[in-house]
Amino acid sequence: MDYKQLIAQNIKIEGFEAEDVYSFIEVPPTKEVGDYALPCFKFSRALRKAPPMIAKDLAESFPKVEGISSVEAVGGYLNFKLDRSGFIGGVLQRVLGEGELYGSSKIGEGKTVCLDYSSVNIAKPFHIGHLSTTVIGAALYRIYKFLGYNTVGINHLGDYGTQFGKLIYAFKTWGDRAVVDQKGLEELTRLYVLYHEVAEKTPEIDDIARSYFKKIEDGDKECVELFEYFKAITLKEIDKIYKLLDVQFDSYAGESFYNDKMQPVVDELKEKGLLVESQGAQVVDLEEYGMPPCIILRSDGASLYATRDMAAAYYRKNTYNFDKCLYVVAYQQNLHFQQIFKVLELLGKPWAKDMVHVAYGMVSLESGSMSTRKGKVVLLEDVLSRCIQKALDIIEEKNPNLENKHETAKQVGVGAAVFGMLYNNKIKDVVFSYDKVLNFDGETAPYCQYTVARCNSVIARARDINAAYDLSRIDVNEQEFAVCSLLQTFPDVVLSAAEKYEPCYITRFAVDLAKAFNKFYFDCKIITDDDNLTAYRVAITKCARQALKTALKLIGVGTPEKM
Fold first, then answer.
1. What is the pLDDT of residues 280-306, one digit of tens each?
2. Which H or E run includes 430?
3. CATH number for the domain formed by residue range(s) 3-82
4. What is the largest CA-CA distance in the chain?
5. Which is it for strands 68-74 and 77-82: parallel, antiparallel or unpaired?
6. Radius of gyration in angstroms for the set of CA atoms belonging to the chain, rounded to a whole number
7. What is the rounded distance in angstroms from the CA atom of residue 224 to the CA atom of residue 151?
8. Selection from 284, 286, 277, 282 nearest residue 298 by Cα
9. CATH 3.30.1360.70 domain locations along the chain
10. Are 113 and 322 in contact (CB under 8 A)?
């Protein structure tokens, strides 16, 4: 039962629909106050009454409704307490009935969401700075799919630009194909760093690098072959990381894919009189909107990120006919996306309003910012390997006979890294520290995973207990109610995560539910001499396990059977 809807339908306020009332209802910070509360401040101006008086009048007129045990006016709030047995019975019945689908929705049926995330650079290492966009984007991909949307995951590869001319110069000058074949991205990164060290003393090699990139654009056989060689090496190595993270994409169309798709965009900008010349470059003047000009073509006629992103937007709309297109990119690119969206709006594209920059905070090292050019990065593969090894060390120490311990260590280690990145609001900057990532204590993935394993153990021990139970013969306690109250919120949590583009809502839910279940586990004996009570508490355990597994799956964290 949707109790918020039940409350909203039974409150009559002149000038407000039930939908309005529904949106105002909130969950109080403590259960002592009530299970739901309606702040009456929002009605004060329309009714020309003080909020406490409105709350008092509503409390007196609220009808006797099955499922609501009490209604009380406190200050400017109308507080509701639920009939706990009825509430718990309804929650357990729904979770057990819906199983893996609990928390899902059909709200997205017939709608498409494109998600641009991860978007790694070819011939550069996959480092810890790429983890945020990768796991945020992948989580949103799963969340939208869970809500019924057709989801399109796009890895907009950084495979275009002068850096490839630089790498070709470095490879031809100092490289050895046999070494690159053997060491892969590690050797390409070494060559890239070496190039920039040399370029600082002999900047004239930048002109040669630019000429090599021009040759790629012009289809030069040798340069294109090297470009494809670098790309194949990169994709092969990053695919290992994606498999570890359980991240998939539907498209790897990178920047180079749009090389032949930019001209129609430029032509349309010209036709609509939006392109003007500025210091030899072709730009869209956005001064009227408080932004610097959006550069479309440089003075030498070369395209830029903006040109390629606009071509990509056209292609995605024409190919997928998206209802929403998300760009999971660091907040450093705020201005870039504001410019792109504004130019598309000026072009008269009604779908410009459906494009969203999902900004997240930057990842830096304790020693300062990362830089591939200077070789100052922490490789993501190293981070994940160390997390997995730590998990394995703990297993060897505490449970050396555990079955599938290597697979369990992988789920726990990778889960710790992913969960840690998704625990806080995405916009927060992160200073990477191995100590933090390798800390498995407290509000972490291992804590939630261990709770699932604990549920599995309880359910296995109770397998001979009859599943049926009679709630009328049970005195519901606070611990049981706390678990079920959280379970009931899960569908709303998933919706909020999608609406706010915040996977952390689900991460926090998992921690809260794990805490509530563990309190229930320690305070309430689950397997008792009373079969009816045991069946009831095992049902709570099954529902907690289901919601926890689903929540962790949505954010990309596996759940080992045993730990």
1. 999 999 999 999 999 999 887 878 889
2. strand 430-432
3. 3.30.1360.70
4. 86
5. antiparallel
6. 28
7. 32
8. 282
9. 3-82
10. yes
Pick the CATH number of 112-260+308-365 from 3.30.2350.10, 3.40.1160.10, 3.30.310.50, 3.40.50.620: 3.40.50.620
Closest CA to 359 of 80, 530, 140: 140
Per-residue CA distances from 389 to 132, 385, 442 (Å): 22, 6, 19
Joined tokens for residue 172 = 């031809």
Task: Convert the pLDDT of each residue in 172-225 to its tens digit.
Answer: 999 999 999 999 988 998 999 999 999 999 999 999 999 998 898 888 999 999
Please report which helix (H) or strand (E) contains residue 365, including its range.
strand 363-365
Cα(304)–Cα(225) distance, rounded to whole angstroms? 23
H runs (alpha helix) in 110-156: 131-146
The dihedral over CA atoms of 448, 450, 452, 455, expressed in degrees to the nearest 10, equals -130
Half-sphere exposure of 475 (CA within 13 A, CB side): 1
Would you give the end-to-end CA distance of the chain in angstroms?
A: 35
Q: Residue 360's beta-bridge partner residues?
A: 330
Q: Which residue has the tokens 């998206």?
A: 322
Whether the predicted model's global pTM rises above the 0.85 cut: yes
Token output for 503: 């996977």
- Which structure tokens are listed for 525? 């004996």
